[in-house]
Amino acid sequence: MKLFRNHRMGLLLGAALPLVAASAGTAVAQDTGAGETATQQTAATGNDIIVTATRRPQTLLDVPLSVAVVSGDSLAKMGTRQFNDLQGSVPNLQIDQTNGNFVINMRGLGSGGGNLAFEQSVGFFVDGVYSGRSRSLQTAMMDVARVEVVRGPQGALFGKNTDAGAISVITAAPTRDFEGRVSAGYEFENQGWNAEGYLSGPITDSLSARFSAQGGHAGGYMWNRATKTDDNSNDYLGLRGQLLFEPMQGMSAKLKVEYGKNNYNGNNLAYNGLGASTNPVSNAIRAIDAPYGGAIETPSFTRIQSSPYGRGFSRTENWNVTLTTDTDLGGGVKLTTITGYQHIKARTNTDIDISPLTLVDNLHTESTTQLSEEARVSASIGKLSLIAGLQYYYAQSHIVQGVYWNNPGLALPLFVGNSILPFDQKSESISPFLAGNLEILPGLTIDGSVRYSDETKQARMQQLPGGPSAFLPYDIRGRRHEKLWDYSGKVSYKFNQRGQIYVSYATGSKGGGFVANDTQLGRTGKYQFDPERARSWEAGLKLRGEGGLYDLNLAVFNTNFDNLQVSSFNGVNFVTGNAAKVRSRGVELEGDLRPVSFFSVGGNVALLDAKYQSYMGPCIYNPNPDPNAPPCVTSNLAGYRLTRAPKWKWTAYAQVDTPLSDALQFSARGQVNYTGLTNYQDTQNPATMMPAYTTVDARVAVTNKAQGWDVAVVGRNLTNTISWSQAFGLPEISGATGVFINPGRTITLQVSKNF
Questions:
Q1: Does the pLDDT at position 46 exceed 50?
Q2: 532 contacts: CB under 8 Å, gap ≥ 6
Q3: What whole-number distance in Å separates Cα of residue 230 and Cα of residue 496?
């Protein structure tokens, strides 16, 4: 109850602060931070885009960081519906969907998604509110103003769990003028549809509102030969309402309430190897699969799977409430508060043995509630800018993993029964921070920031009786209390209005935690993992040609991680441990060229060297261990490449925009995306390594700007290339390898109307 009283008091205080501040002084201007208005969110073009990656508004050209910005208009034009569609626009960004969760890797660094209690090493923020659960990324990309992707450690500026980077989504805000848009589309390959729209405008002289909605159906793209269904279809719904209250100049309060639902029917799990023909379990599975056309032992858009617990599914619901206030206190002093509430409810069922056999089924449920508060004061004194703030975060989660072993007697006598693993966790943190910026000479600027974080976690991990005999029941309680410091420093030199060079050093920290879903805890007792820490150097160059002829961004970086938290599959469960030493270094290049008004080309390329320097890998479970032998065996993975860290990744595009008549405009864009060889498991199993692959996207559109409508055809993955987002070995099932297949080709007709 004490924790609840504390976080409730913090939220009430955050909401009251701007009212107190308003009575203390006269407000004369509005802050452009997280509570920025629609006018402030509107960018000109190119590097004139205003971003808030440094906690204050700057043009993209002026920010001494590796920041990629994707506009909401660009997302809409390319038919972006899911969060992972971002990765084609940002070098060294890898986003994989893994059966209900998202895994984000930046510059080869991330946390994996197997541990259901895990928080990502790449922080995710929506309108300034941190979201600790990857499930929250299931919400559709709806009515977005822009997405800012900041690479490298950001602990001092962004705070909690940003030691690999941060992604900040800024939604479109209410406007002073009436405007709206509706859009609808039909997808031909899998018979899907989508519809979305928004309406924005004033209610009174001081009150504006914006209402946004999105819904749709993506047809299944995995043909299940056992159930005769197209699996992994997706139904989604998003609703958002916002009120912007501006009672006087220099004061505003924005209230946002939103609901999102995302449902997957069936799943996208397939074979990538079933084991040797001499293995009796492999042969048994092959025999069972024979009536369905035979086992499919290489990944494809076809699979064989059924379960006595019903068709696989993933269900996620997300509720969010955010209150943002901005108050000008006079004298160059401004106050911003951000109060956030989030509740996530999720349920996932997966037939993990990827066959019609009733061997292994997983049923996961989750309920998470989080509350957060941020208050910050900014001030300018001559050429010195200062920001001081305080962040508070509270979350509690209840997670249950059920592993149902229904062995029909195929050489697996130990695996009979139901393994039920409840997990409860409470997390609370508070972190004050200070950031400053000073121009010491014309064009020469230094930036510095520091943050202290005090975090407490409490957890209870259980395995109830009734599971397989190899899984001993347990009831373990744990508590962690950690004090972490992060800091950053930058020196930048703007040699003219179109160019800058910079050098930066930054750290990032992520607290330790608990293993939520390990059926072997009763034997190993390894239920906690340590905090991780990043230290990174970066040098960069930003250029813009005269008249906007070109944009060029170059970054060179070297990041060292201590105790990187790694989620690895041990043959039975995804478990979490620490890799002692990790190094990630590389080069990123982004560029656009506009030689004539109607034509542009560009893209990005990333070269990455991300390897373990010291790491005794996951303890791989032996399905039939000698009673006198250890329950699992480890391997030294020093020198091996990290998971989700391809050496090369690049995107190239060409775009044409030309008038067809006085009223009509024609546009066409083609984009090629390349991803190099990617390893998905620390075990270095070749069957879990995805070969290099290339995808092709395109868009053709006709627009009538005067009447406000456009018609477009959008194609994604036009070559129907097979790729996957996760892979894991199943030693208890004959050495089979499972992979989660990404969507194939989609072709969508999209019609939109502005009003």
A1: no
A2: 121, 163, 509, 510, 561, 562, 563, 564, 565, 578
A3: 57
Using pLDDT thresholds of 50, 70 and 90, give the confidence band for residue 413: low
- Give the pLDDT band (50/70/90) at residue 99: low
CA pair distance 511, 208, nearest whole angstrom: 40
Confidence at residue 313, expressed as pLDDT on a 0 to 100 scale: 87
- Helical (H) or strand (E) element with 523: helix 521-524
Q: Which phi and psi (to 5°) does residue 611 adopt?
A: -140, 155
Positive/negative CA dihedral, 130, 134, 135, 140: positive
DSSP 8-state code for residue 723: -
The token pair at 400 is 């249950």
- Torsion over CA of 64, 65, 70 and 72, rounded to 10 degrees? -70
DSSP H or E run through 693: strand 693-704
Angle in degrees, CA 86, 88, 94, rounded to 5:
75
CATH code for position 46 = 2.40.170.20
Looking at the predicted structure, is the pLDDT value of residue 134 above 80? no
Residue 153 backbone zone (phi > 0: left; psi -120 to 50: alpha; other: beta)? beta
For 301, residues 6+ apart whose C-beta sits below 8 A from its C-beta are 221, 222, 223, 722, 741, 744
Tell me the average pLDDT across 660-664.
Answer: 92
Give the span between the Cα atoms of 14 and 338, in whole angstroms.
7
Q: Which two tokens stand for residue 456?
A: 């407490």
Distance CA 350, CA 333 (A): 54
Residue 171 to residue 174: CA distance in whole angstroms: 10
Number of domains present in the structure of the chain: 1
What single DSSP character describes residue 639?
T
The parent domain of residue 603 ranges over 2-754
Q: Which two tokens stand for residue 359?
A: 């061997």
Handedness of CA 482, 53, 200, 336 (dihedral sign): positive
Who's near 98: CB < 8 A, 6+ residues apart?
Answer: 113, 114, 725, 726, 740
Q: Per the structure block, which two tokens stand in for 426? A: 């409470």
pTM of the complete model: 0.89
Running DSSP on this structure, what letter comes out for residue 135? G
Cβ of 661: how many Cβ atoms within 10 Å? 8
pLDDT in tens, 526-547: 788 899 999 999 999 999 999 8
Which of 214, 178, 185 is closest to 72 using CA atoms?
214
Rounded Cα distance between 109 and 579, Å, is 12
Helix (H) or strand (E) holding 17: helix 2-24
Q: Could you tell me which residues are beta bridge partners of residue 368? A: 344, 397
